[in-house]
Amino acid sequence: MNTLNPVFKLLGILIPTFLLAAFHNPILNIIVFVICIILMLLSKVSFKRLFLLMLPILLVAVGMFFTGYHFQVQEGAPVNPDSLDLTNNAIWNGMIFSSRVLAYAGLGFLFVLTTNKMELIRSFQQQLHLPPIFAYGLLAAWNIFPNIMEEYKKTRAAFRARGVNTFAISPALLKPMLVKAVLWSEALAIAMESKGFNSNAKRTEYYVMETTLKDLIFPVTTTIGLLFIQNLILRHINLIL
Asked: Would you give the end-to-end CA distance of the chain in angstroms?
């Protein structure tokens, strides 16, 4: 996953994401989630980091399960919650809600945790012909963001040194950061103009984002694979019924 072209990786994940919205199959959602976890681990994503990121998602999934169960129960006869006498329809409806959260979270984390942000922007510029002025702006924003976080820590430490207590998004903290961001962006714009950067000029690329056969095959594979698994599940369900 780490070696795929970011644009084709995005297409290979985005198309199944839209297709999942049309399917109400919790088994399919769980299979997609498990495949995403396996691919992330094979891509050497830290298990500890993945576990910490998944904890709030799992809590949301549990909440969505009981939401789906309660919604289904309201349509039928009342059920005593103390007896935990869940009907098949209620369980199935709850699993649809909760498994969809897991599937979407797995697909999102699969793209975010296996994609380099700089390569993604370069790929947008080269494969999707994103205007250079937007590409340079995005690259500058990604590089300035760590400086903004460092400035936030320094400003908060300065307030604490003076005995002033501020909350996380206090205007007193955000104002200095806003001023710094404007100064940095202005200095960056002047520096780019002085170095001859022009959005209309034609230039070669130092970092070339190549497109290989596996990049072209990936979106096709994920789309066909999702449809195949969906049809296979429906076939087995029909045989059981």
From this structure: 38
List the structure tokens of 107. 């697909």
pLDDT digits (tens, 9 = 90+) for 173-196: 788 778 887 888 788 778 777 777
Query: Stretch 124-139: mean pLDDT, rounded?
Result: 82
Residue of higher predicted confidence among 204 and 10: 10
**Rounded distance between C-alpha atoms, residue 67 and residue 182, angstroms:** 45
CA-nearest of 239, 232, 237, 229 to 29 is 229
Cα separation, 53 vs 175, whole angstroms: 31
- 173-201 per-residue burial string, b: 16 or more CB within 10 A, e: under 16: beeebeebbeebeeebeeeeeeeeeeeee
